[in-house]
Design goal:
single chain, 346 residues, alpha/beta
Length: 346
């Protein structure tokens, strides 16, 4: 079956006004970040896709594998105002979003913005603070605004949150509530480096040639990033791809192991991630490969699993893999780069 016919406007990305194709700039951005976090191209690409799609990223892994380094590197190359919040057990919501304080010089109450008022915010070890302080991020993550003393204030544009957390088995951690997990477009794990990359890392430190995130310079301006985000959302999604995504969500909601299946917000984020994946590859239309390549990063953390006292009980990732594999593609989607789509599902 032939691929669906796209109009000339849909097939071409609207970047005639760019001095060079946006994909060249994005590839340059990836190379810069890869110079800091060696051998983790997949994680770096997924982070780029999530941020380009307007989402937030949760990096979960053991200490010392580069979570904070990855977040700092992206903050530097994207440009804009960058703030870091080191979460601790004694933090209060006002330490994150700011508050109204008395100004003795003007003899009036004034708003003092918190570190959330930035273009790129690194929430380091987010699960080390209390649920009360964690909840201060809910409105900011979804509505891009904060409410203080009955007054709503908009966050800077663009606004991107990159959070890190240690595994919940670590002492002094608090589980993120389902409502907050659902606001992260992707939940990623970096993992230990391969032996070759780890050797190269040590050689860089030994030779004093290590590139630290603080030394990276912006690759794109804030205005360019906003334009890329707008163009990515114009990526054409064939109705058959959307039908497939809806069917995957329906399977998760009927699965006996699942208490809460995929939410409409999860599907929206999946669609946005697929569009951004196509945009990074220089296409004005998404293919099955874009849908499948982003599923495991976008969907598993949205599921609430039932407790089953068995070591053989499937986890959320297993449920997503099973749904993606078992849901048949609509006939109209088969021609949308069928070979690549089939390759991802095997």
């Amino acid at each position: 079956m032939n691929a669906p016919q796209l109009s000339e406007e849909e097939d071409k990305l609207p970047h005639s006004h760019w001095a060079e194709p946006p994909q060249v700039l994005l590839n340059r951005l990836l190379v810069k970040v890869e110079s800091v976090l060696l051998g983790k191209q997949d994680v770096i690409r997924h982070t780029l896709i999530a941020l380009l799609a307007g989402g937030h990223v949760l990096l979960e892994d053991v200490p010392g594998v580069g979570k904070t380094m990855l977040a700092q590197a992206f903050a530097r190359v994207v440009g804009g105002d960058f703030k870091r919040i080191q979460f601790t057990s004694d933090m209060l919501p006002a330490d994150v979003i700011g508050g109204v304080v008395w100004d003795a010089r003007s003899s009036e109450l004034v708003f003092r913005p918190g570190p959330i008022m930035a273009n790129v915010v690194l929430a380091d070890e987010i699960n080390r603070t209390s649920p009360r302080t964690q909840s201060a991020l809910l409105e900011a993550m979804e509505e891009r605004r904060i409410s203080i003393e009955g007054k709503t204030r908009r966050l800077p544009v663009p606004f991107m949150l990159i959070a890190t957390q240690n595994p919940l088995s670590f002492e002094g951690t608090n589980t993120l509530p389902e409502a907050q997990l659902d606001r992260f477009m992707m939940r990623l794990s970096i993992g230990y480096p391969a032996a070759a990359e780890e050797k190269k890392l040590l050689e860089q430190y030994a030779d004093r040639k290590r590139v630290e995130p603080e030394r990276l310079r912006p690759v794109i301006a804030t205005e360019e990033w906003l334009q890329m985000q707008a163009e990515a959302r114009q990526t054409h999604m064939h109705p058959a791809l959307i039908e497939y995504m809806v069917q995957v969500a329906a399977v998760t909601r009927r699965a006996p192991e699942v208490l809460l299946g995929l939410s409409p917000r999860a599907l929206r984020d999946w669609l946005r991630a697929a569009q951004a994946s196509a945009y990074v590859d220089g296409r004005g239309y998404a293919i099955p490969d874009d849908v499948l390549a982003t599923a495991e990063a976008v969907l598993p953390h949205r599921l609430a699993m039932r407790y089953v006292a068995s070591s053989n009980a499937p986890d959320a990732l297993t449920v997503i893999k099973r749904a993606v594999r078992e849901v048949p593609w609509p006939a109209a989607a088969v021609g949308v780069s069928a070979a690549q789509g089939a390759g991802r599902r095997r």
